[in-house]
Write a structure and sequence with these properties.
The structure holds two protein chains of two kinds.
Chain A (H helix, E strand, L loop, with lengths): L1 E3 L20 E5 L9 E4 L2 E2 L2 E7 L29 H26 L6 H13 L8 H8 L1 H9 L4 E10 L8 H9 L5 H4 L5 E10 L3 H23 L7 H22 L13 H5 L1 H14 L1 H10 L1 H18 L4 E6 L3 E7 L2 E4 L5 E5 L4 E7 L6 H6 L3 E7 L2 E12 L8 H15 L10 E7 L5 E7 L2 E8 L3 H16 L4
Parallel strand pairs in A: 14-15, 15-17
Antiparallel strand pairs in A: 1-2, 2-5, 3-5, 4-5, 6-7, 8-11, 9-10, 11-12, 12-13, 13-14, 16-17
Helix pairs in contact in A: 1-2, 1-12, 2-15, 3-8, 4-10, 7-8, 7-10, 12-15
Chain B lengths: L3 E5 L4 E10 L5 E12 L2 E5 L6 E3 L1 H5 L18 E3 H6 L5 H12 L5 E6 L7 H13 L4 E6 H11 L8 E8 L2 E14 L2 E8 L4 E4 L4 H15 L13 H6 L7 E4 L5 E4 L25 E5 L4 H15 L3 E3 L4 H14 L6 E3 L3 E7 L2 E6 L6 E3 L4 E2 L4 E5 L5 E8 L6 E6 L8 E9 L7 E6 L4 E5 L5 E2 L4 H9 L15 H4 L8 H9 L6 H9 L20 H22 L9 H7 L8 H11 L14 H13 L3 H13 L7 H14 L3 H4 L2 H18 L9 H10 L15 H20 L4 H21 L8 H7 L1
Parallel strand pairs in B: 1-7, 7-8, 9-15, 11-17, 15-16
Antiparallel strand pairs in B: 1-2, 2-3, 4-5, 4-6, 9-10, 10-11, 10-12, 13-14, 17-20, 18-19, 18-23, 21-25, 22-25, 23-24, 24-28, 25-26, 26-27
Helix pairs in contact in B: 3-4, 5-9, 12-14, 13-15, 14-15, 16-17, 16-18, 17-19, 19-22, 21-22, 21-23, 22-24, 22-25, 23-24
Classes of the chains: A alpha+beta, B alpha+beta.
């Protein structure tokens, strides 16, 4: 396994560990990867030998083994105030990650209208250009989805009738058990009336309403957890307190607090985390919704850990979506094919969408070009494998069999800031070196898309007709705006 | 607010209209929003082998999946399926696929209505499949509505149709045009008048080349001609083909060819339309309607051509439904559904069964004719069909016919255990219009159990219903069950009168002269209504093999002894060994039947038979014949022999007993009888009944047994000897009535009569029921024997 710092790195890391400056990529040839933490970016083969480009996750705790990773920041805990430099770095990375994640998550809503999915996604992203819009998150979703079930449950809380022993008026006695019979025979008197004493009461079994059922315990546990998570989200986004989203989360939190108060008054206890769901929790629609939402909130720390580790994968999806939005936005384009986007309810290794290749095909009518967007290709050409770029644009000219070009896109992610200019130059030099490789295909254009740390920027370098463009941008605000404009500029430029 | 959606899933241009849309800030906007899946919609299989998923709607329409080798692995044709093919496919897998097609248009609706073709192809199975598929798209409350009905609802909502109007609807369909006539009725709902279409008969198809399939073929041929020089491109995969077929504007299209490159094609602008197969006679059903609606998914030149053509044929104004009119009608219907307003009224396809009445079998309709039901409402048969379960019955056969199924079916209901007494059971139908299969429920308060008839699991009877009813008509009269006198271990054990049979057999097996008397007495001894050997000749199962061997050995000894007696080698002054043999019933070697028959035939010849010892020898021989005879030939000889003798000369313990034993215990003996024989025997029965009148009923034992045995003639002559239809039965009934009267009037005269009255009355009443053909006591013969 060859570990490399950046896709365009000429040299390998060798025995050196990965550091926050690196993109955590490795190339493998016919090797078994058992025990190595990785996700496949690009498979393929060359002359019968299996070759693949893999990416490793950021370590969950400063450093990691297999492969060796050192000096990484730890994922910050939500609401934590950073103190050390590393913590500040982690905090910033975390914010960037959440913004990118929110953009990708907006695709879920956009998919509701499959005909206008890219238009809708663009609208959502345009809203995100504005910093005053708080980001999407699980609690925001739940504030919308759980509103109705909670209202329903508030009014129709399930209760059971429990048998308890109580002193009961003689004429009200309906049931007696062993204990109450035993009590009765111990009472002095010759008849029951005498035994019942002056108050004419005997110990008997009565049925009393009881709310302390497993489903209500889960409801209470959910209300407490949801209000705490909502509070965290509100603290993070307190600048956006005038937005609809913020107001809705606040209203939801208040509702959860009120409901938890009411439930506590009914002597309901909090359910333990690993509770086995009963019939009501599985079959009653509202309780089931609460149970599922509770599980999601409980698992959110684990989910966040995963997303932190695999944020480079989320970044790839984000950049691909950005390219598609930019292409779709051109006046001359027509989307002629697109693989179905399957939204995954639970993200897998940082990926929210599952899709086949090519992801999208655009026809640029005036330019007379067809652009295919490929991401994580299954059977890349040998040259594409050598470029180590798992995203690419394939360009054709209709009715001209001799014209086909590929622009490789390096969607790179690292914890530390990468120098855009030097990266662009290095990547160009790398592409230049690849020109010597005998191949039916020539790759002369590249695009680097990397996260912007402070300010978004772009840079382009062309030499010997080999050109690489670089854009650094972010998932929200000005940075996102800049990124989308730069990508649009790139696709409009004379790259074809 | 409720999320409401209307679907038009037709496989040519699927559309959904819904009332909500999710905005970028996740707010929900309410209004009217339409989504379509494109022309000739498909579903595609996305993902790798680990996570395959079928996707429908617009995402599938623009997916490259299954579009040919140029796309690499995903271009494989098994990744693409036409919605039209799934709609026509009858396997259950298509439910999942239909769900994908529906979800691709819209999902998560609270209320949804989906349009279905008003054609025989929309069978109950398909309806169920579609309802389940809606479930896969997370639709909560769903309703299937016929497309013509949706067209009319659309027009009602637009205010274009008035109350009590008749509306003819022509729906463009795959193979031509479906025709339906609907009536718009006024229904009062919560102080509001709702105009509701009523469907009172199934729609029918007028086949035409102008159907979508015909148009498609024309377009397909045109495009194929154009693609002639480009290999491996299928006209079916090109968007322009359905556009051309359905009159949509087609434009330059890019196609990916096998090597991955792209080519441009400029499809033809239109297809040639010529109508050769439509004429006004075909539309006779709707010509008198107040309004005529025409619904088509086509556009442009195709739509204009069809409109013009129908205007010429029908010669009155044709209202052309707007684009997406069915989906719009569907959302209006869904709105009605969400407000619990009536959507439409529908008739239910008739379901009939066969019941037995006095007149024989007849067809019984479980659904009232001319009755329509509100959509979504459960229809329950007003008058269920009632069947009688006889006591001892553990299964029930029911014949069912459905109007829209070719052949009737026979369902067998297992009642679980034998029913103790005659119990009525009701069959009724529960069905919602256009909601899949009807539920066929059998309810019996007497049994305390309900049964459901499974139509699919029932046996198909490939006979026309009327013929089946006629055939079954002849089996309507009850037939008394054959008498089998049971065996039992109690009879083998000790009794008051004798030792146990094991011991007797054991003692006698080694003797040179076995004690035939004790053996015969033990076998003829009846303990707790059980004999040692059953009347069918069976030994109780628990009897050991060695004991059976002892019995067999002694039987052989008895045969040897009788043979010697017949040969004149020995003389014995009793018939105990013969008695021992005859009380083995049909287990007795058939040689004995022959000997007994010889005796009976030569009784009056003057020759002294070795078995003729005293007056009771005749009784033993004739009753013995009744017990042991096991072959049709022998039975025939016996019956003929007895009937040769005038009935007046019969003796109750000889001829009457022998005949009654044969007719009641044998499966074959009643089949030997002819009408003449039956008449003769019935006269003897009447005579014995008459003779008993005024007596103490001491010689009456075999007359009722003979009468009921005689009724078993119905095995070959169904409906015979039924009171009201048969003269013999009337005579028999008369003498039973007389006997009942006689017993009732004299019951207080002495204890014997009182006992006879108590014994015979219930029996005689049961016999009367049998004579009426309504016999309900399957153990009648056993009960008579027990007296």
């Amino acid at each position: 396994m060859k570990s490399i710092s950046k896709p365009w790195s000429v040299s390998q890391l060798g025995e050196n560990p990965f550091t926050p400056e690196d993109c955590l990529l490795s190339e493998t040839e016919n090797e078994k990867l058992k025990g190595i933490d990785h996700s496949l970016l690009m498979g393929g083969s060359y002359r019968g030998a299996k070759r693949s480009l893999i990416i490793h996750p950021y370590p969950r705790n400063y450093s990691g083994k297999a492969p060796s990773r050192e000096n990484f920041p730890k994922r910050p805990i939500e609401g934590q105030i950073p103190e050390t430099d590393l913590e500040v770095k982690a905090q910033k990375t975390f914010i960037r990650m959440k913004q990118v994640m929110a953009r990708v998550q907006e695709l879920d809503e956009a998919l509701d209208d499959p005909i206008n999915v890219w238009k809708k996604l663009k609208l959502s992203w345009e809203r995100a250009k504005d910093d005053t819009n708080p980001p999407m998150s699980e609690i925001v979703k739940q504030s919308k989805d759980l509103d109705v079930p909670l209202t329903v449950l508030e009014n129709t809380l399930r209760r059971v009738l429990r048998r308890v022993r109580k002193m009961t008026q003689l004429d009200r006695v309906q049931e007696m058990d062993r204990n109450s019979m035993r009590w009765l025979v111990r009472q002095p008197g010759r008849s029951i009336a005498e035994q019942a004493g002056a108050k004419q009461r005997v110990l008997a079994v009565v049925r009393e309403e009881n709310f302390n059922t497993p489903e209500n315990q889960v409801l209470l546990a959910y209300c407490i957890l949801a209000s705490a998570v909502a509070r965290e989200w509100m603290l993070e986004n307190n600048k956006t307190d005038t937005t609809k989203r913020y107001k809705r989360v606040k209203k939801f939190r208040d509702k959860c607090l009120n409901l938890s108060r009411m439930l506590k008054e009914k002597q309901i206890i909090v359910a333990p985390a690993g509770i086995t769901p009963n019939y009501v929790l599985m079959e009653d629609k509202s309780y089931y919704a609460v149970f599922e939402a509770w599980k999601k909130l409980l698992a959110r720390k684990k989910a966040l850990d995963d997303l932190w580790a695999w944020q480079a994968e989320t970044w790839t999806d984000f950049t691909v979506l950005a390219i598609i939005i930019a292409l779709n936005d051109l006046n001359e384009t027509e989307l002629i094919a697109q693989s179905p986007l399957i939204w995954m309810q639970e993200p897998m290794v940082g990926r929210f969408i599952d899709q086949d290749r090519p992801l999208a095909v655009f026809w640029l009518k005036e330019t007379n070009r067809v652009v295919e967007v490929h991401s994580r290709p299954k059977n890349p050409s040998f040259l594409q494998q050598l470029t180590r770029a798992h995203v690419s644009l394939k360009i054709y000219e209709p009715d001209n069999e001799n014209f086909s070009k590929r622009i490789v896109v390096w969607a790179v992610h690292s914890i530390d800031k990468m120098n855009l200019k030097s990266s662009v130059c290095d990547a160009r030099n790398y592409l230049n070196d690849l020109q010597r490789v005998p191949s039916p295909e020539k790759i002369k254009n590249g695009l680097i898309l990397m996260p912007a740390h402070d300010t978004a920027e772009d840079f382009s370098h062309e030499e010997n007709k080999i050109r690489v463009d670089g854009i650094s941008f972010g998932g929200a605000g000005v940075s996102l705006n800049f990124g989308l404009n730069s990508i649009a500029k790139f696709v409009r430029s004379d790259i074809y | 607010m409720k999320k409401i959606c209307g679907y038009d899933l037709n496989g040519w241009h699927d559309t959904a209209v819904r009332n909500w849309k999710i905005l970028p800030d996740e707010e929900i906007e309410f209004g009217r929003f339409s989504s379509t899946s494109g022309l000739k919609p498909v579903i595609v299989k996305s993902g790798n082998s680990k996570s395959l998923k079928w996707i429908g709607g617009h995402q599938a329409y623009i997916a490259p999946h299954g579009c040919g080798d140029g796309w690499g692995e995903i271009g494989n044709s098994d990744r693409r399926k036409l919605v039209l093919d799934i709609l026509e496919n009858e396997d259950s897998e298509s439910e999942e696929l239909l769900g994908a097609a529906i979800a691709g248009l819209s999902k998560n609706a609270d209320f949804a209505v989906i349009g279905i073709d008003d054609l025989p192809t929309t069978n109950e199975f398909f309806q169920e499949k579609l309802i389940n598929a809606l479930g896969k798209a997370n639709v909560r409350t769903k309703l299937l509505v016929w497309r013509p009905v949706l067209a009319v609802i659309n027009q009602i909502e637009l205010g274009l149709i008035e109350e009590e109007a008749s509306v003819g609807v022509i729906c463009h369909s795959s193979n031509g045009f479906s025709i339906q006539k609907l009536l718009v009725k006024k229904i009062k709902h919560k102080a509001q008048i709702i105009l509701t279409p009523e469907r009172s008969k199934p729609g029918h198809l007028i086949k035409s080349e102008l159907g979508y399939n015909g148009l498609w073929m024309k377009a397909h041929n045109l495009i194929t001609d154009q693609l002639n020089d480009i290999r491996f491109l299928d006209a079916g995969l090109i968007n322009a083909t359905p556009k051309l077929a359905m009159g949509f504007r087609s434009k330059t299209e890019l196609l990916k060819i096998r090597n991955g490159n792209w080519i441009k094609i400029n499809p033809p602008k239109k297809i040639d339309l010529a109508d050769t197969d439509l004429s006004s006679d075909l539309f006779g059903d709707i010509l008198d309607c107040d309004y005529i609606l025409f619904e088509t998914l086509s556009k442009g030149a195709v739509k204009d051509f069809l409109h013009k053509r129908f205007s010429e044929i029908i010669k009155s104004e044709i209202i052309l439904l707007e684009d997406g009119g069915i989906a719009k009608g569907a959302i209006s219907a869904a709105e009605r559904l969400s407000n619990a307003q009536p959507v439409y009224l529908d008739f239910l396809p008739q379901i009939s069964t066969i019941i037995n009445s006095k007149e024989g079998a007849e067809s019984f309709d479980l659904i009232n004719d001319a009755e329509t039901v509100e959509a979504g409402q459960l229809y329950k048969s007003r008058y269920p069909a009632t069947f009688g379960i006889q006591s001892g019955q553990s299964k029930l056969s029911i014949y069912i016919r459905k109007e829209n199924e070719r052949w009737p079916r026979k369902a067998i209901i297992s009642l679980g255990s034998k029913v103790q007494e005659p119990t009525p059971i009701d069959l009724s139908v529960e069905q919602r219009p256009a909601s899949g299969r009807a539920k066929l429920l059998m309810v019996s308060s007497g049994l305390g159990r309900n049964f459901t008839i499974d139509w699919d699991a029932s046996e198909v009877i490939e006979k026309e219903w009327d013929i089946l009813v006629k055939e079954l008509g002849v089996y309507s009269t009850s037939i008394p069950a054959r008498l089998v006198l049971p065996n039992g271990l109690d009879a083998w054990n000790n009794s008051m009168r004798s030792n146990d049979l094991y011991e007797i057999l054991h003692k006698n097996v080694d003797r040179k002269k076995p004690d035939w008397e004790s053996l015969a007495n033990k076998l003829s001894d009846r303990t707790l209504k059980q004999y040692c050997i059953s009347s069918d000749g069976a030994v109780p199962e628990k009897i050991s093999q060695s004991t059976v061997e002892q019995l067999d050995y002694l039987t052989e000894c008895a045969i040897v002894e009788l043979q010697k007696r017949l040969d004149g080698e020995i003389k014995v002054d009793n018939n105990n060994s013969l008695k021992f043999l005859t009380w083995q019933f049909r287990r007795c070697p058939q040689k004995v039947t022959r000997w007994l028959l010889d005796y009976a035939q030569n009784k009056n010849s003057g020759i002294t038979h070795p078995f003729a010892i005293n007056s009771s020898s005749d009784i033993l021989v004739f009753q013995g014949l009744g017990r042991v005879t096991n072959s049709v030939e022998a039975e025939k000889e016996i019956i003929e022999l007895i009937l040769e003798k005038p009935i007046e000369d019969w003796k109750w313990r000889i001829e009457t007993a022998c005949l009654s034993f044969l007719l009641s215990r044998s499966e074959t003996a009643p089949k030997i009888l002819t009408r003449g024989m039956v008449e003769k025997i019935s006269k003897r029965v009447v005579l014995e009944f008459r003779n008993a009148l005024g007596s103490e009923y001491t010689t009456f034992n075999y007359a009722p047994l003979l009468l009921v045995g005689l009724l078993r003639w119905r095995i070959i002559a169904p409906n015979a000897l039924v009171f009201g239809k048969d003269k013999i039965a009337m005579n028999l009934k008369q003498c039973i009535d007389d006997t009942i009267k006689d017993l009732s009037s004299r019951q207080k005269s002495n204890s014997k009569i009182k006992k006879a009255h108590k014994q015979y009355l219930p029996i005689l009443e049961d016999i009367l029921l049998e004579l009426n053909g309504d016999g309900s006591n399957p153990e009648l013969l056993f009960d008579i024997y027990n007296m």
